[in-house]
């Protein structure tokens, strides 16, 4: 065996060279550092999209739903508070209406005043103060003239709450005296209304027969006093105003026509 001092180099790709690969192959694809970085980046993006789709978006949808429910509940609370405020306002208006109703009814005549002092009040404040003569003062007790008001003539709100008492009044006097008497009716204590006013100047022949002045004016009218009903009278008036069950208002039996022979 011969040994020499020569050094055999394994570099240079010669027959004695040992080759080492610098890249890894997966499924036949050479994975270089650049390709590996791209793959890792794609995996990161995929994982991020997965977590967003499966965790972030459902949580956001749930958050949106909860925010909507909270907003709806708050709106309901606001509506309830508004209704409570309106209820308080309605109660206040009802109380004001009751007070106003009491004040309005207090303006009408008291039954005791009508029965006992209306004639005296008329004599002192209207007749004597103007110089006319009272020739007639009599109650008119027909159903149309006296009784509970239910025809809406004073407004629907007063139906079944007051009644009218009508008196026939006759006076005689000069024109200016008669005019003053009609004006003085406003001074009566009871709330009254003048209806069916008629005036005429007496004829000369009639003036001679009656001994009156030819310029005498004869006046007649109905003096209507309005009186508040008691609670019992209100209940009775409302019950009377209710239609009879099964009855048709205004319906009348029509006789059957007899055929001609």
Task: Give a topology summary.
Blueprint: E1 24-26, E2 29-31, H1 33-107, H2 111-116, H3 118-130, E3 133-140, E4 147-148, E5 162-173, H4 175-184, E6 192-201, H5 204-210, E7 217-228, H6 231-241
Antiparallel strand pairs: 1-2, 3-5, 4-5, 5-7, 6-7
Helix pairs in contact: 3-4
Kindly report the average pLDDT value.
75
Given the helix and strand composition, which structural class is it? alpha+beta
Backbone shape: rod-shaped
Order of helices and strands: EEHHHEEEHEHEH
Distance between the ends? 170 Å
**How many alpha or pi helices?**
6
Largest sheet: 5 strands, antiparallel
Helix fraction, binned, reads 40-55%
- DSSP, total strands: 7
Q: Which spans of ≥5 residues are poorly predicted at pLDDT below 50?
A: 1-5, 7-21, 249-261
Rg, alpha carbons: 54 Å
Strand fraction: 15-25%
Keywords:
6 helices, 19% strand, alpha+beta, 47% helix, disordered C terminus, 7 strands, five-stranded antiparallel sheet, single chain, 261 residues, disordered N terminus, two-stranded antiparallel ribbon
Task: Please provide a written account of the structure.
With 261 residues, the chain is α+β, with helices and mostly antiparallel strands. 47% of the residues lie in helices and 19% in strands. It has helices spanning 33-107, 111-116, 118-130, 175-184, 204-210, 231-241, and strands at residues 24-26, 29-31, 133-140, 147-148, 162-173, 192-201, 217-228. The strands form 2 sheets. Strands 3, 4, 5, 6 and 7 form a 5-stranded antiparallel β-sheet that branches. Strands 1-2 form a two-stranded antiparallel sheet. A hairpin with a 2-residue loop joins strand 1 and strand 2 (29-31). Helix 3 packs antiparallel against helix 4. The longest helix has 75 residues, at 33-107. It is rod-shaped and about 155 Å long. Residues 1-5, 7-21 and 249-261 have low confidence and may be disordered.
